[in-house]
Please model this.
Amino acid sequence: LLNHTTSWEMWLPLATSCVEGQGLVNEDGLHVKNRSIAVGCSWCELGSLSTAMHDAKGMTFTCSPCPAGTSKLLYSTTTCTSCAPGTYGNSSGQSQCQRCPEGTYQSGLGATSCTPCPEA
Model:
């Protein structure tokens, strides 16, 4: 059996076969986008999303920052959530949306900025 590894190696899971919620990491533990420099998997950080990737070795996942106007506050979630009315996210990779500053507002979802209140 040890002399015929080709008959059983394909049944072993790859260390770089990440599940949803995780992403590829290099030997320094940093998230990477390419399996050729990856040594394993790690949970995506807050503010980042797990995205499926297909290559010659099959499917795996990589971590990408949530887009501006969204956030990801919990490790257990696998999607980024649009910022609620009254909040905004002006950059990608945010774990929380920010409240609009005093004197400004935002009534829509997924805002990247707030609007000054009209003068009375």
